[in-house]
Amino acid sequence: MEKDEVAVRSHDIIVASGNARASEFEALTTLGAAVRIAVNIRGVPPFEYAMLREVAVHRLGLHPGEVRPALNLLAEAEMVDLVSDGPNIKTVLPDIPFFENLYTRLGEVGTSTQGLNEHEQVTVALMRRLGQGPVSRQELDNMGAENKALNRILRIGEDAGFVLPKRARGHDIFMSPAYFSEDPQALADLTAQAGSSRLGRVLALIKQNQGYPLKVILERKELGGTALDDKDIKLIQSLAGEGFIPPPAVRTSHSGENHFMFGPRPGHTRLALHQVQIFNNALALAAAVRQGQFLAKEYRINQPVALLRALLRDGSLRSNSEAMEQYKAVAQHGIARLVPTDGDKARLELIKDPDNILAVKMAIDLLNGPVDHPAPDEELILAMRQGEQYVEPLLARRSLTSSTIVSADKESQHIIDTFLLGRR
Q: Is the pLDDT of residue 224 over 60?
């Protein structure tokens, strides 16, 4: 297996697992934690280790004992320099490469430093297969893994959220939340297969109105000007809660937690592994803009696409008093930086590198709808720990699962089952 895939899957697993940890995972956890930290500190100026430890534990969901081993792995991969005073790390100096190189280098160092045990190897192989599409239990049995180890990993994956078991017309099917984000054509195929049914109509509406807040959909009972009945609403909740639609969430002090609904990604090609995090960054940016459009505290965004095009063209947005709260998640993802101006105002400045430019373009494509063809020390803390907080799609999906998931109606469930069985 390619080393970059090991790194990507390790990150997927640790994000989906939240605070849960499996005793069988050792190297996989360290590697996933290293990727988790690297993704969030790329482009950040030097900072104190004590601050990173707090952010990693309270914002990134790592355990305290995972931070130092992950940093040591990053240092071995020459992605950070560590300034120490005796045994104590004082300062971290990041030098994180672009995502493609990030995954390859960390995968190489992470697997050579501490090899994967049997359960970790089975888990990575399982995630690789699930990233390609739904799979039956019989197909999993043919992977060659020892049955006891496979059963244990499936149980861990189900509990943690990186494996989604389904029952489709008498067949046991397994999926991963990574599937639809990595292969946008899959959800487009489901939309086409659903045709003029309720499911097809709802998926088409979401595709045409990417990033609408679930709260707004529930309150207005409409999406993009099209009225929705109670069955439509329940179906949207079901699709989001069961992992078909990645629902990033934004938390604010004035509007609480809001999930933003995204359908099939524009385009007809599977995402490269290193682009999955870029796509998640695009979701974060699109969700932040939709937050300002529908749930602003005072200053509403009237033209979201024009705003993002201006960011791409000019490299920054005009300062205003809501920017610091509006775009904290965007700053945390390393897409842009918040620069304080007058009083409580701040200006959003794009960090111009190929990954971030691609993220903005992806966000523009999302908000455009159908087309044919994821600072100083004080600013980092502010970006990560205060105001709006972007919650990655995997974690947001788990939140929906525990709170608002409902069963799809029989017709829609039949179409979904047929789709899942046909994708194997």
A: yes
Angle at 75 between CA 73 and CA 80, to 5 degrees: 125
How far is Cα 414 from Cα 235, in angstroms, rounded to an integer? 13
Rounded to whole angstroms, the Cα distance separating 61 from 57 reads 5
161: which 2 tokens? 């959220």
Q: How far is 30 from 112, CA to CA, in rounded Å?
A: 13
Do the strands 346-350 and 226-227 form a parallel or antiparallel pair, or are they unpaired?
Answer: unpaired
Structure token pair of residue 297: 């505290």
232, 271 in Cβ contact below 8 A? no
> In this predicted model, what pLDDT tens digit does every residue of 172-221 receive, in sequence order?
788 877 666 666 566 666 666 666 688 778 888 888 888 899 889 989 99
- Which 3-state string (H, E, C) describes 170-212? CEEEEECCHHHHHCHHHHHHHHHHHCCCHHHHHHHHHHHCCCE
- Predicted confidence at residue 90, as pLDDT, reads 93
Which residues in 359-375 are b (16+ Cβ under 10 Å) and which e?
A: bbebbbbbbeeeeeebb
Radius of gyration of the chain (CA): 21
Query: Tens digits of per-residue pLDDT, 244-260?
Result: 666 777 777 777 788 88
Measured distance CA(39)–CA(75) in Å, rounded: 15
Specify the pTM.
0.66
| Gap between the Cα atoms of 190 and 415, Å rounded | 8
Distance CA 304, CA 312 (A): 13
pLDDT at 30 over 80: yes
| Residue 266, CB-side half-sphere exposure with 13 Å CA sphere | 19
Assess contact for 107 and 31: CB atoms under 8 A.
Answer: yes
- Residue in 292, 259, 285 with CA at minimum distance from that of residue 393: 259
DSSP single-letter state for residue 320:
B
CA distance 167 to 169: 6
Alpha-helix residue ranges (DSSP H) falling in 78-117: 99-113
β-sheet bridge partners, residue 349: 316, 337
DSSP three-state, residue 134: coil
Structure tokens at 183: 């292969």
- Of 292, 209, 365, residue with least CA distance to 220: 209
**261 falls in which pLDDT band (50, 70, 90)?**
confident
Enumerate residues 6+ apart whose C-beta is below 8 A from 167. Answer: 173
| Amino acid code (one letter) for 373 | H
Determine the 3-state secondary structure of 87 from DSSP: coil
